[in-house]
Amino acid sequence: xxxxxxxxxxxxxxxxxxxxxxxxxxxxxxxxxxxxxxxxxxxxxxxxxxxxxxxxxxxxxxxxxxxxxxxxxxxxxxxxxxxxxxxxxxxxxxxxxxxxxxxxxxxxxxxxxxxxxxxxxxxxxxxxxxxxxxxxxxxxxxxxxxxxxxxxxxxxxxxxxxxxxxxxxxxxxxxxxxxxxxxxxxxxxxxxxxxxxxxxxxxxxxxxxxxxxxxxxx
Length: 218
Description:
The protein is an all-alpha fold. It has 11 helices and 2 strands; from the N terminus they run αααααββαααααα. α1 (3-17) packs across α2, α1 crosses α4 (49-61) and α9 (139-146) packs across α10.
């Protein structure tokens, strides 16, 4: 079995096992057996079962649309369609290539609603904390760039990103997400986020200008 094939086999095995088992209950020996690879081969790819879980999160997030791309695509008069993790369209409209890999990008909220084969990973309580700790939270760069002219600290900008990602995750996994008006809900939330960021940037820009003027007078 080639290296890439072994890597894929191990990850696919964990997806299968997590359909009926918790992550903590899966051992390296069992995962290697399910993937039909030796323990030596397993450790040539991953250091632990949790590292496989982290790799699955990376795969899952590869085609997630950045917040920047999502806000740029906002068109209340033209609803959009985003394929789920199995490539099936979910809702009206159009998907756009706007993710890090140049693939068809899917908004995070929509991705969570249509997790497909990754549903056991997304349902695991460690998914969101791991996502927020990792580099897969692709909106951090957007917040930093959008608020670059403000006086916000890196810690404040990170807090905004965590707030946005956590809120989006909570909404997408709530009962509201199962209703038929999801496109309208998503447009509303996107507009709220965009307006908040714009207002925050203006507020801090005005504050910085006032402070500069006061220093000039003194």
